[in-house]
Amino acid sequence: MRAFDVILKGLDSFDPDERRASVEAIVKFGDREGVIEKLIGLLRDKDKGVRDAVAQSLLSIASDFEGMKKKIVESVCELMCFDDIGLKNLSSELLVKLGEDAVPSLLSLANHEDKDIRKMAIDVLGLIGDEKTEDFLIGKLNDPDPNVVVSVIEALGNVGGGKTVEFLIDSFEKFEFAQIQIVESLGKIAERFHGSEFLKLIHEFLINLFDQVDDPILKGAIIESLGKVGDKSLVDFLINLVNDENKAIQKMAVISIVKICSRDGCNFKSNRHFFKFFFQRAKEIFYNSDDTSFKIDLLKFLSKWCDFDEVKGFLINVSLTSFDEVSSVAFDIIKSDAEKFISYALNDSSITGDKFVKLIGEIFYAKREILIDLGEEIKNVIAERILSVFDLVSPNEKVLIFEVLPFLSPDAFAKALPYFQKDPVVRIYLT
């Protein structure tokens, strides 16, 4: 039996592992007759592993066989018309990954007689983000179903430009059910077109709107979008909201100030007392948020305030907490003025011995020249500090101290060497 026939037969196996393996193997025969139809049918398989493998295989075939893209797109689009919500969602995810190749078929579905299918098609168009669909989507603002209109407004936030801005602002009163989405989409457009002329229009509309509405949720959305507009002239307006009686508005004001100042380099050094209060609010949000973008923005903003001991301590703690993008940004700030941060850490009792050793180790392994180029006095103080905690730290940190010490103080290393050689961790490291 030929390999293709064996693989094709495996797609009908009772064993899900065999079906999955056959799905993965059939990719190289993706242009054979009946393969796409078979795979499309298996998107309804009971086994999630098989369904996921089918989705990946369809994407691979679309990439490897140009002539099969249209057939795959059309077949997946047909699945969006089924009642099975799981199948609809899987189809949507596939179409997003297929990208602009899926747009023509999605435009047809966006005019489907079923409002739910129209909505889902428009959601996918928004996620694909093809700016060429802007005019079509603006036309769909006249859809008779409110849920579809909401999806259109959200999609326009991802694909629209100056023309969309005018339509959304003009439609604000008309679409009372979608005012929050209009504000959010204006913010998304402002963020995508930072520096464009029409941002002034968004700026003025949102500022005027804030004074006119009472809904705290809508006010919060306005503040968030103002942060995305990114005009430095907004900072004073936002500062006044940090003390607002509504906690959600306070939070969004802090987030928006951080966003604007981290991007455009503005600050409020003339108001150092306010900064301390602001910093406490920003830290609370930082530690209670999963928003990596905000965390990085805050660190960039704080890089201008490293003369505050509270900021230095915060950056050190963040840099040592985890090994991710956020801690990496914090560590880059520390490296830019390492002596200042090391001096602070030497005198701050909250920086425990193991934390201090980790900080020195991070600097040493990232760029040892930073330590080597320090003045002799501070190098000797560092050497004394890390030696004083040698017996208290983990095995890895003991090795680190052993490796770093010669670069800080050869004399201190020579004196400590006999002691090091008796330590079982160091002895194992040296063998």
How would you portray this structure in words?
This protein is mainly alpha-helical and 431 residues long. The protein has a domain at 1-64: Leucine-rich Repeat Variant (Alpha Horseshoe), CATH 1.25.10. The chain has helices at 3-10, 16-25, 35-42, 48-64, 69-79, 85-98, 103-109, 115-128, 134-139, 146-159, 162-171, 179-192, 199-212, 216-229, 235-239, 247-264, 272-287, 292-302, 309-321, 325-336, 338-347, 353-366, 369-372, 376-388, 395-408, 410-422, 424-430. Helix 3 runs antiparallel to helix 4 (48-64). The model has no long low-confidence stretch (mean pLDDT 92). It comes from Candidatus Thermokryptus mobilis. This is HEAT repeat. Pfam families: HEAT_2. GO terms for molecular function: oxidoreductase activity.
CATH superfamily of the domain at 1-64: Leucine-rich Repeat Variant
Q: Which residues form runs of ≥5 with pLDDT under 50?
A: none
Give the proportion of residues in helices: over 70%
Shape: flat
Secondary-structure element order, N to C: HHHHHHHHHHHHHHHHHHHHHHHHHHH
Described by its quaternary structure, the protein is single chain
CATH architecture of the domain at 1-64: Alpha Horseshoe
Q: What is the average per-residue confidence, as pLDDT, rounded to a whole number?
A: 92
- Please compute the radius of gyration using only Cα atoms: 29 Å
Kindly provide the name of the CATH class of the domain at 1-64: Mainly Alpha
The number of helical elements comes to 27
What's the total number of strands? 0
Terminus-to-terminus distance = 58 Å
Binned strand content: under 5%
